[in-house]
Request: fold
Amino acid sequence: MKDKKWDLMALASIPLIMTLGNSMLIPVLPQISRELQISSFQVSLLITLYGLMAILMIPVAGYLSDRYGRKKIIMPSLIIAAAGGAVCIAAAWFTEGITAYWIILGGRVLQGIGAAGAFPIVLPFVGDLFKDEKQVSKGLGLIETSNTFGKVLSPILGAYLGLLLWYAPFISIPVLCLLSFLLVWFLVKEPERKGEKQSLKDFLSGIIAILREHGRWLYAIFAIGGICMFVIFGVLFYLSETLEGKYNIHGVIKGLVLAIPLALLCLASYGSGKIIGQNKPRMKWIGCGGMFLVAAAMVITAFGSGIYWLVGLLSAGGIGIGIALPSMDALITEGIEQKSRGTITSLYSSMRFIGVALGPPVVSLLMPRGQWLLFGTMAGVSVVGGLLTLLAVTPGQKSAGSNGKRRDKPLKLPAGYRQRAR
Reply:
C-alpha cells in the first residue's frame, strides 16, 4: 500500500475536482441568473446538461478504458473538462446575456464529457493497482473520502468565489484540472495490461448477461441511487434559491448553511459504512430505513416555516441519504463478483447522474406551485426508493461451496467474455 500512496493521492485529486466543478455552482446559481437575466429553470440547466453528458458518456469511457488503458482515457478527459471551463470563462468575459448563457451551456457539455472519463474510471483503476482486496478497499476509501470532502467544501468555496466574480467558479475549473493532470501524469504508473482486448460485442454481451441474471435487484439499486441524487441536488437548489430570495442570506454565510446538510450526509455515510460491514441483510434494512427517513423529513418540512425548521429537516433528509447510499454501494460491490464490478459501477454512476441532472430543473418548476407540491414530490419519490429497497433488493442468493460453507452464487457469463477489473 505504501509504495502506491502517491498514485492514490494523485487519483484522489480527480473526484475532488469533479465534485467541485459541479457542486461549486449551486450557491452562485441565483447570482448567475441575475447576471445573465435568465430564469431559474434556465440556470438549473447548467447542472442538468453536465449530468446528461456524463450519463451518456460514462459507459463509453468505461469500455474505452478497458480496451486502451485507464490512464489513456483519464488524461484527455481532464483536458476536455479544463477546456469546458475555459469556454465558460470566455463566454462570461467576452459576451453577456443570453449569448453568454448558450456558450456557457456548451462549456458545461464539454465538462460533462470530461467528468465521465475521469472520476468513474478512477474506481476500476484503483482495483488495477492492487491485487489484495483489503488494499483495494482501503484505496477506494481514500477516493471516497476525497469525494466527500469535495461535497462539503464546494458550497463554501463556491459562495466565496462568487463574492469575487460571478464566474469565478468557472475560472477555478481549468486550474484544478491541469493540476490533477500533472499529478496523474508524473505520479501514477498504470500496471501492465495482460490478455486480449475486449471487443465491443463481448462487452455488450457481458452487460446483457449480468442484467439478465441480476436485473431485478440491480435495477432497483440503480433507481434508488438516482432518487437519492435527485433529492439531494433538488434540495440544495431549493435551499440556495430560498436563502437568497426569502432570507436575504448571501456569500460565505450562505455557503456555510448549504454545507450543513452535506456535512451531515457525509458523517452519516461514514457511520453507515462502518455499521453495515459485509452483512447484506443489514445493508438492505439500513438502506430501507434511510429512504423512509428522507420521506418523513420531506413531509414534515412542508408543515412548517422558518430557516431553522427548513435547514434542520433538510439536514435530516441528508442524513437519510447518507445512511442509504453506502448500503446500495456495498450491495452492488458484494453482490456482483469482482471481475464484473467495473461494468456495473459504470451503469450505476450513470443512473446517479440522472438524478443529478433532473433535481434542479424539476425543483425550479415546482417551486412556484408551492412547497406542498414540491416536498410532496420529494417525499413520494423517497417512498418509492424505500419500497424498492424493501421489496426488490434482496441479499445475494447462497449456494454451497466446495468447503461445505455457504457462499454467494457465482455469476455466469458468456464464454470468452473478459470483464472489467474492479
Summary: Confidence is low (pLDDT under 50) at residues 397-422. Residues 120 and 346 are 7 Å apart (CA to CA). Residues 200-245 form the longest helix (46 residues). The radius of gyration is 21 Å.
